[in-house]
Amino acid sequence: MSDSHDAKHAAHAGHSPEEVDRHVRAAYYVFGSLLVLTAFTVGAYFLHLPKHLAITLALLIATTKGSLVAAWFMHLVSERKLILWMLVLTFFLFIPLLLLAHADGRRPHPPALAMSLKGFHVVFVTASVLLAFGFALWCFEAAPAPGTGRLVAGAVSVLVGLGLVGYEAWFLKKMRSLP
Amino acid sequence: MSMEIPYTVDARPDTGLTNGKLGIWLFLASEVMLFGALFASYVMLRVGNEHWPPGATYLNIPLATLNTVILISSSVTMVLAWAALAKNDFKTFRVFMGITILCGFGFLTVKYFEYSAKFHHELFPSTNTFLAIYFTLTGLHMLHVIGGMAVNSYLWGPGSALWKTDPVHFTNRVENSGLFWHLVDLVWIFLFPILYLL
Fold it and tell me: Which residues does B57 contact at the CB level (< 8 Å), separation at least 6?
């Protein structure tokens, strides 16, 4: 096929040939970096560092490696903002999951960041309310103009959102009377 | 009557993305929550136990390091496979996609030896909490490796017929499959130090 066809194909796939070349070059650099960081991770293990330092170092290296994979292999450096916002939302939903690890109320001195199961439930009901109203907004506002199906879906989503708000208010009121 | 799925090649005007790409990212977000829940379980089990064995008590660090290198390498070959398609080079795509699939087999083979050694020494998920969470996390991760290999094998084999009729759509499929494969790599990057080295 001709060069112009190649260029058209690459551009149509969302990436210019120069951009593809840049990704390939970056992939080799990232590959080298990941190998070096893996060697550091294993090397640090054999240094028998104090426990807290070892955990911090291992997680720091793993986070660096994970960021390299996400940024360059998964093209997040050049990705649309919608995906980045989606990942930010995921991250904020992920935090309560980690805090749930400290939700065991039987411990005499729970950590300062402890989140109870009740709090965990409220966070996710709130997230569901936002999701329901957000989806309804998309149904009504997104281009092209909505048909009957999207209007119905939007209306149902509003009802679900309102129902969840009512449930959350009832839940919070009931929880106040429990230990 | 067939129904064509819209926006597989051109981006949707409102999202600026193809439906496939938006779909795979939503799926990956749900995967983050799935593994996040299991990582949280690991933290809960670990801080709740006064005596937690170092990973090396039960696990083989050289084998796990080998598997890390294999998965990292497969991520690079996956990028090269996609890049070959984006530059209209189908033959090179098949070579790199083939290597990616072989890396997947390599990872599973190493895992087979690891698991066999555990079972041979009568170490099972029911033996203790550490092994329970180890088998759960690595078992689920292994299922993801198998799932990724199945999709990649389809795209390498019968699914590649799409290249002749709609090359851009096929390239997008490979990119989406690659995103999943990179997530599998990313999860392992965290599993390796947490389970084996700490």
Answer: none
Q: Does residue A93 contact residue B33 with C-beta atoms inside 8 Å?
A: yes
Report yes or no: A69 and B189 within 8 Å, Cβ to Cβ.
yes
What are the chain A neighbours of B195 within 8 Å (beta carbons)? Answer: none
> Is the CB of residue A100 less than 8 Å away from at least one CB of chain B?
yes
Structure pTM? 0.80
Per-residue HEC secondary structure of B59-109 comes to CCHHHHHHHHHHHHHHHHHHHHHHHHHHCCCHHHHHHHHHHHHHHHHHHHH
Residue B31: Cβ-neighbour burial (10 angstroms; 0-12, 13-18, 19+):
middle
- Is A113 in CB contact (< 8 Å) with chain B? no
Q: Which residues contact B193 (CB under 8 A, 6 or more apart)?
A: A41, A58, A59, A61, A62
Would you call A41 and B193 a contact, using CB atoms and an 8 Å cutoff? Answer: yes
Q: pLDDT tens per residue, chain B (198 residues)?
A: 455 677 888 888 877 888 899 999 999 999 998 998 898 888 888 887 888 888 888 999 999 999 999 999 999 999 999 999 999 999 999 999 999 999 999 999 999 999 999 999 999 999 999 999 999 999 999 999 999 999 999 999 999 999 999 999 999 999 999 999 999 999 999 999 999 988
